[in-house]
């Protein structure tokens, strides 16, 4: 359920730090499916950060693919609305820099 907080003090501390940071960077975002628990935690962090701090997301996939990586479609829709609603999307195209040319 969205909004439920875990009581593990270390997890709460990490969640608070991620929520409060000026810039949250999520690299390789949703390259693999996530659990419902992880989706809820991510939603709580993103929702708490809304209009309070910047979030930079990098991904090899489009936002449409992200929906498929979240098991609960209601959470997926709520999360994507918060991420995409105020997003500035920059598409980078070109050769893979990790593969020698």
From TrEMBL:
IstB-like ATP-binding domain residues: 13-99
GO MF term set: ATP binding
Alphabetical list of Gene3D superfamilies matching this protein: P-loop containing nucleotide triphosphate hydrolases
InterPro entries cross-referenced by the UniProt entry: IstB_ATP-bd (IPR002611), P-loop_NTPase (IPR027417)
Protein name: IstB-like ATP binding protein
Annotated organism of origin: Corynebacterium cystitidis DSM 20524
């Amino acid at each position: 359920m969205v909004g439920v907080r875990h009581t593990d003090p270390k997890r709460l501390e990490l969640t608070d730090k991620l929520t409060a940071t000026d810039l949250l960077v999520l690299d390789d975002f949703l390259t693999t499916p996530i659990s419902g628990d992880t989706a809820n935690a991510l939603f709580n962090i993103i929702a708490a950060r809304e209009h309070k701090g910047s979030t930079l997301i990098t991904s090899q996939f489009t936002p449409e693919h992200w929906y498929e990586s979240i098991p609960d479609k209601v959470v997926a829709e709520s999360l994507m609305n918060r991420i995409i609603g105020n997003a500035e999307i920059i598409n980078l195209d070109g050769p893979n820099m990790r593969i020698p040319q």
